[in-house]
């Protein structure tokens, strides 16, 4: 299977994913799902909202870490492809004297 890597598109995708990850992480860190605990202290709804918020906070952390990892891997791939292109270009120039 032959394919061509569009390095600049991959780089743009990585930047977009990074921006989305930053936005999502910021939003998730400021979201509070335990407001019922303050509104109805001692109620079952309050306890449930705290538990929900704790699960949400844990999932948000996992998602944030996954996005960071994905963006890092995308950046590394872009850099690897660019280095490969640079080596190929240098080899062609050296072979043809140019």
Task: Characterize the structure shown.
By secondary structure, the protein is mainly alpha-helical. The chain starts with 6 loop residues before the first helix and ends with a helix. The longest helix is centred in the C-terminal third of the chain and has 53 residues.
Set out the fold topology.
Layout: H1 7-30, H2 35-39, H3 44-96
Helix pairs in contact: 1-3
Shape: rod-shaped
Instruction: Please give the alpha-carbon distance between the first and last residues.
Output: 32 Å
Name the helix and strand elements from N-terminus to C-terminus, one letter apiece.
HHH
Class per helix and strand makeup = mainly alpha
What's the story with the biggest beta sheet? none
Got a strand count? 0
Question: What gyration radius follows from the Cα positions, in whole Å?
Answer: 23 Å
Summed up, the helix count is: 3
- Beta-strand portion reads under 5%
Low confidence ranges: none
How much helix, percentage-wise, in residues?
over 70%
Keywords:
mainly alpha, 0% strand, 98 residues, rod-shaped
Describe this structure in a few short sentences.
By secondary structure, the chain is mainly α.
């Amino acid at each position: 299977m032959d394919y061509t890597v569009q390095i600049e598109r991959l780089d743009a995708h990585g930047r977009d994913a990074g921006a989305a990850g930053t936005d999502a992480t910021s939003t998730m860190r400021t979201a509070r799902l335990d407001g019922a605990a303050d509104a109805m202290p001692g109620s079952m709804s309050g306890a449930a909202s705290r538990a929900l918020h704790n699960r949400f906070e844990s999932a948000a952390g996992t998602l944030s870490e996954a996005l960071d990892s994905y963006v890092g891997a995308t950046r590394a791939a872009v850099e690897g492809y660019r280095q490969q292109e640079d080596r190929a270009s240098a080899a062609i120039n050296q072979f043809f004297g140019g």
